[in-house]
Amino acid sequence: MNKKVIEVSGLVKEYKNLRAVDGLSFEVYEKEILGFLGPNGSGKSTTINCILSLLKYNEGDIKIFDRKMGPDSYEIKKNIGVIFQDVAVFDELTVYENVDYFCGLYIRSKNTRKEYIQSALELVGLEDYKKFRPKQLSGGLLRRLNIACGIAHKPKLIFLDEPTVAVDPQSRNNILDGIKKLRDGGATVVYTTHYMEEAEQLCDRIIIIDKGRIIAQGTSDSLKKLAKIEEKITVEVSGQAEKLIPKIKELNNVNDVVFENGLLVVSYGGGSDNIGDIIDLFRSNNVKYNKIYSERPTLNDVFLELTGKELRD
């Protein structure tokens, strides 16, 4: 097993009457992308801020690179890159000057810095935008600049907080590919996102927290085995399908039926010919459908099952 890069033991953080982090313990290993997931208010940001010593905590121990982390741990911090969700660059500087500034906080050699800046710009696909200012960039390019600023000094540990929020598909793919390249180059990545398909595609291991506690952890495949759903069948139909819902609920192994915006979604706990049963039911009741398909449970299904479907602030 790879070395432990982060060790969190018994972490507790309280705000007056609220225990935001409740005895959290976990490790992050060298050269892995760890998905750190949870609904709003689950304690993700508080935990990360405690790890980075941006917040004081009430109890627990935090080690990074096998050394105790504290506010004055500058030798540790110079090997960490942090990219927060809110873009933080200087509007008056060009793309190149922005990356140069942030890289220069850690790398004094101009020649080394020049090499590192070029590498960072290539990683995020901004080589052709060196002389642009942030206000001239699209939202996707701006997020890519934000990442370049955070990783230009070649940190060994990188925290990425929702880096693909509100970006176009091309930029999203570029960012995800860049994160994989960082991992393949030897970096350890802690990744937070609300896009479950990203975590499923990107992360080597996933931790899901809620109310300051870990409620599940493992690979994407192992987490999906926690779902009570064995199969989901989706049918594109007309409004007539509503009359079939009571009959569908009576079929074997059906856990749930949802009809919304012309889509009928039937969740099953087991069974072998569920799609055949659905087709037979539609035909015998003369209800037409446009398309029908079956899929296995996704990470999103597991996440909602574990954390609930109610909205969070």
Shape descriptor: globular
Low-confidence stretches: none
Elements, N to C (H/E): EEEHEEHEHHHEHEHEEHEHEEHEH
The CATH topology of the largest domain is Rossmann fold
Assembly context of the chains: single chain
The level-1 CATH class of the largest domain: Alpha Beta
How would you name the CATH homologous superfamily of the largest domain? P-loop containing nucleotide triphosphate hydrolases
Q: Quote the distance from N terminus to C terminus.
A: 39 Å
How many domain units? 2
Q: How many E strands?
A: 14
Work out the radius of gyration. 23 Å
Please tell me about this protein's structure.
There is one protein chain. This protein is of the alpha/beta class. The protein folds into two domains: about 5-225, Rossmann fold; about 230-295, Alpha-Beta Plaits (2-Layer Sandwich). About 35% of the residues lie in helices and about 30% in strands. It contains eleven helices and 14 strands. A hairpin with a 2-residue loop joins strand 1 (about 5-15) and strand 2 (about 20-30). The model has no long low-confidence stretch (mean pLDDT about 95).
